[in-house]
Amino acid sequence: MVGCQNHMRTAVRYLLLTLMSAIMVFPLVWMFRVAFVAGGGGLSLNDLLTTNWTITNFADLFTQANLGTALFNSILVGGIVTLGNILFCFMIAYALARFQSRLNKILFVLVLLVLMIPMHIIIIPLYLLCLKAGIYDSYWALILPWLVNPIGIFLVKQYIESIPPSMEEAARIDGAGEARILLRVVMPLCRPALAVLAIQVFFTNWNSFLFPFILTSKEHLRTLPVALAHYQGHQAIDWPHLMAGSTVAVVPVLVLFLLMQKQIVSGITAGAIKQ
Amino acid sequence: MKSFRTPSLILTSPWSLTFILFWVFPVTYSLYISFTDYRLLTGEYDWIGLANYRELLSDPAFLAALKNTFIFVGGTIPFTTVFALVMALLVNRQFRGRAFFRSAFFLPSITSMVVVALIFTNLYARGGYIATLANLAGVSIPIHGFLYDNTTALYSIMAMDVWMSVGYYMLIFLAGLKAIPDELYEAAEINGASPMKTFWSITLPLLQPVALFVIVINSIKSFQVFVEIFVMTKGKFDTATSVFFIYEEGLTTAFRIGYASAAAYVLFIIIALFSIAQFVLLRKRSAAW
Q: How far is CA B233 from CA A175, A183, B125, B127, B263, in A?
């Protein structure tokens, strides 16, 4: 009797889970199918069930709509911002973790403070700043403001504090210079934390729309999200091409997600646990 | 011990620079221009004191944007929080297929908001998938599509937002569930407590700090909703939110950046008050538990 009840419970549980995951995954599957629809349409269920699959939508985007440029921009900006954050957040976090001074304590409090400031407050002034500094409408505007992420400093600092300083001291006794200790001893030890930081920064940057959108206007500077939003805006909606472009924007993130799930999850939960 | 002052200053300089250039300066400068009639196109401006703030409070467009912002925050957060908690409870224990379900739930959170907004623009369109489903169910639907109707546009965007963010908050709840010691559950089981009883008297109270964190960060984020509004409706059909108002006033047509900055500060104050209130309220309640 009890066994039967357990079976029932398991069945209900799996049914519920399947239904929920179907709802969660369905829109992405829909996007993927529309991306391969030949000709127009791509709106109704009927379109999707009856039309053939084609890859010409993707080819069109690269040959006629400059999707290649947007893809290049997203990779370039995302790559530089991610590398910058790995280097800078590591340097900063190391100093904050190992050198106890009043200034460093203040600097760390400022990290926590900035984490609480809502980003919308800097929309207008950052736009003005970029305009006045002459970096509006350049790669600099897409890169410079985001090279140091306060969450990154926080994450890496916590990690360095969990590593005993004995390794560094041993290297110092062996006569290694400080720069060498930093890059050859401590940085490799921090690899797990830096991987978490890298994936988080890259995802945020890759998906970011608001700031790339307001800080640039030239077409050749558009990142993928900006290009997609413009593509939707400038003509009657051409769903197969728009969803093909969306697929191009989603697939790299999806692959990275499947490869680095552990780092992504720990990056998100690290901040939460602290609270 | 060697002096560490110079290396420390060099190592922390990227943060000092970022902080001054991209945080202190923007935040204080926009406070300053919020007291001026600065328009980008004219370039000249005068100090006008609180005039922008006074105008905001009687500007129907701003009040409508505030109203929509509150509807958005108040209407999404209860659903997101409860669904995220239910999902977390469902995939917390070890069972076959758990990793798959977790990933499926989390998938929307890593997708770009622009892409999600485009997909749902398609799904919500006239003759689109959701309209077809609603027709089959016999529900009456707006003739021009869900996003082209004052009564449904904002709520449709809100439903999408819940769908998109539950997976992220599920992960945070999972971390919270992991932190609850197993002994408590074992003790409850020995004492013959029912699963329901265990949930209400162990899981839920101990999850309170995590729930508070989820609600606070989600409201701070939701108060600033912009991208989905911009992509899906361009603020039409009564969907303009506060940040959309800031964008429209400050960075389009009239470029009233003084006025837009004042609006940004009003929203800033609302967010700050709201976060403080949530902390105080929920702390008090958890102390009384």
A: 64, 49, 12, 17, 21
Residues of chain B contacting residue A275, judged by C-beta atoms under 8 Å apart: 209-210, 212-213
Which pLDDT tens digits describe chain B residue by residue (289 residues)? 456 778 888 899 999 999 999 999 999 999 999 999 998 888 788 899 899 999 999 999 999 999 999 999 999 999 999 999 999 999 988 888 888 999 999 999 999 999 999 999 999 988 888 888 888 888 888 888 899 888 999 999 999 999 999 999 999 999 889 888 888 888 888 888 888 888 888 888 889 888 988 998 899 999 999 999 999 999 999 999 999 999 999 999 889 999 999 999 999 999 999 988 887 877 766 555 4
| Rounded Cα gap, residues B43 and A157, in angstroms | 43
Residue with tokens 């709840």: B173
For residue A52, give the H/E element and its range: none
Amino acid, res. B90: L
CATH of the domain at B48: 1.10.3720.10
Q: Do A42 and B29 touch (CB under 8 A)?
A: no
Query: Considering only CB atoms, which chain A residues are within 8 Å of B12?
Result: 91-92, 95-96, 103-104, 107
CB contact under 8 A, B7 and A178: yes
CA distance B56 to chain A (A): 16
Evaluate whether residue B281 is within a structural domain. yes
ipTM of the complex: 0.91
Cα gap B193→B186, rounded to integer Å: 10
Q: Is residue B104 included in any domain, yes or no?
A: yes
Residue B134 CA: distances (Å) to CA of A30, A49, A138, B127, B139? 17, 19, 46, 10, 5
In Å, how far is A135's CA from the nearest CA of chain B?
13
Q: Classify residue B142 as left (phi > 0), alpha (psi -120 to 50) or beta.
A: beta
Which of B8, B90, B176 lies nearest to residue A101, judging by beta carbons? B8
Cβ atoms B147, B124 nearer than 8 A: yes
Please check whether residue B13 lies inside any domain of the structure.
no
pLDDT tens digits, residue range A81-90? 999 999 999 9
Spatial distance between the Cα atoms of A58 and A143, rounded to a whole number of angstroms: 28
Distance CA A125, CA B38 (A): 12
Kindly list the residues from chain B whose CB atom is less than 8 angstroms away from the CB atom of residue A226: 114
- Residue at B157 is within a domain: yes
Q: Is residue A91 within 8 Å of A190, Cβ to Cβ?
A: no
pLDDT tens per residue, range A218-270: 999 999 999 999 887 655 688 899 999 999 999 999 999 888 887 787 777 76
Domains of chain A: 66-234 (1.10.3720.10)
Per the structure, the count of domains in chain B is: 1
Query: Which range marks the domain in which residue B275 is found?
Result: 32-288
Distance CA A243, CA B115 (A): 8
Best of B119, B132, B269, B279 to substitute, by most chain A Cβ atoms within 10 angstroms, is B119
